[in-house]
Automatic annotation (TrEMBL), chains A, B:
<protein>
    <submittedName>
        <fullName>TetR/AcrR family transcriptional regulator</fullName>
    </submittedName>
</protein>
<keyword id="KW-0238">DNA-binding</keyword>
<feature type="domain" description="HTH tetR-type">
    <location>
        <begin position="9"/>
        <end position="69"/>
    </location>
</feature>
<dbReference type="InterPro" id="IPR039532">
    <property type="entry name" value="TetR_C_Firmicutes"/>
</dbReference>
<dbReference type="InterPro" id="IPR001647">
    <property type="entry name" value="HTH_TetR"/>
</dbReference>
<dbReference type="GO" id="GO:0003677">
    <property type="term" value="F:DNA binding"/>
</dbReference>
<dbReference type="InterPro" id="IPR050624">
    <property type="entry name" value="HTH-type_Tx_Regulator"/>
</dbReference>
<dbReference type="InterPro" id="IPR009057">
    <property type="entry name" value="Homeodomain-like_sf"/>
</dbReference>
<dbReference type="Pfam" id="PF14278">
    <property type="entry name" value="TetR_C_8"/>
</dbReference>
<dbReference type="Pfam" id="PF00440">
    <property type="entry name" value="TetR_N"/>
</dbReference>
<feature type="DNA-binding region" description="H-T-H motif">
    <location>
        <begin position="32"/>
        <end position="51"/>
    </location>
</feature>
Length: 184, 184
DNA sequence: ATTCCTTTGCTGGATAAACAACACATTCCT
DNA sequence: AGGAATGTGTTGTTTATCCAGCAAAGGAAT
């Protein structure tokens, strides 16, 4: 991975930040490229230099976070169970604006919730294969189990974010870990 | 005044902000250009593109604020007495980091306090000439009066900043205005 | 429908900033 | 003392961004 020019990092950061802020203020289709470039303090043409349009910007933003999550969980699956959840929730906390915006906005990112859910489902599927020797869930449909826990997970995350993250990542991760271990 | 390129504004802002932050963390002579460029997230050579060295940076930063103050007070001297003081104190409040740092740092900006004092002295001198018909201060040396009020003014500002601006600009301006009117 | 206004992609030329490299000075260390 | 590290000021080249301006598409108002 060759390192990228400082300038592109700075402008992309500015654009993404501006876009997220705007997503929190108005609906996706009401946001113009002009809005974004103004907020980001960047020339309008510069936005086109990096993204095809606002849909592309949204896609790349989502893709980026999904990838970061994949990296993080690959790196984290070597440590303890509960600790891994905690690390992920710390990531959610650090990017709370992104996740709460994306999970909240029904009209804007209908794709995100399902993409995110798919990612979580894959994660649990792998996890289930690794720990399927414990006799629990004998005779139960694997798909049902995975979807059960994945939806539970996402739902808890969603309400935690919506409520403004009332408890620290450690405690929510611990509680969630206890519940998940009863299933898996 | 032709408008300047967005890029130079952004980098100059970043550099000045970084420099001010560093001034609050360590002594002036311990600050390197490398520190500044790192903090500003800017290439080192870019700093040299705008400033000769850190002394020049400091000078320009001071000069800039003095000029802004001159503009502000020229614009403000058409309104009420006390209101003008309030506007200036709002400026101090908005740039509290700069003023508290500069007034505090003995070793770094020994020049600033005197420059600033000179500016205040000039302001009061003009003010005195405009309102010298009121019979107060008959037979008193003008220079003494001006230096008296200027030092009082700067001293009050200094401690207000040092104490973390406990009262809002309005009230400090009003109190200061009452005291100054007893003299001028 | 026609007008008016905003937004959209896109261009081309100018320029700020990045980056890497230099020779030299300074501090640090041990 | 002497070598390593760090900081300085400057250069040349490359690249990202700016900015002004375009024609076209769409919406809203009259």
């Amino acid at each position: 991975m060759q390192k990228v020019d400082r300038r592109v990092l700075k402008t992309q950061e500015a654009i993404k930040k501006a876009f997220l802020e705007l997503m929190n203020e108005k609906k996706f289709d009401e946001i113009t490229i002009q809005d974004i470039s103004d907020r980001a303090n960047v020339n309008r043409s510069t936005v086109y230099l990096h993204y095809l349009d606002k849909f592309d910007l949204l896609d790349k933003l989502i893709e980026e976070h999904i990838n970061k999550l994949k990296e993080t969980s690959e790196w984290a699956c070597q440590v303890e169970w509960v600790e891994a959840i905690q690390i992920l929730f710390e990531y959610f906390e650090n990017h709370a604006l992104f996740f709460s915006t994306m999970l909240a906005s029904k009209e804007a990112a209908p794709s995100f919730r399902s993409k995110f859910l798919d990612y979580v489902i894959e994660g649990f599927k792998d996890e289930l294969h690794k720990t399927n020797g414990n006799g629990k869930n004998e005779g139960l449909n694997e798909d049902v189990i995975v979807k059960f826990v994945a939806n539970a997970y996402v739902g808890v995350l969603e309400s935690w974010l919506k409520d403004g993250m009332p408890s620290p990542p450690q405690s929510i991760a611990k509680e969630l870990g206890i519940l998940l271990e009863r299933i898996l």
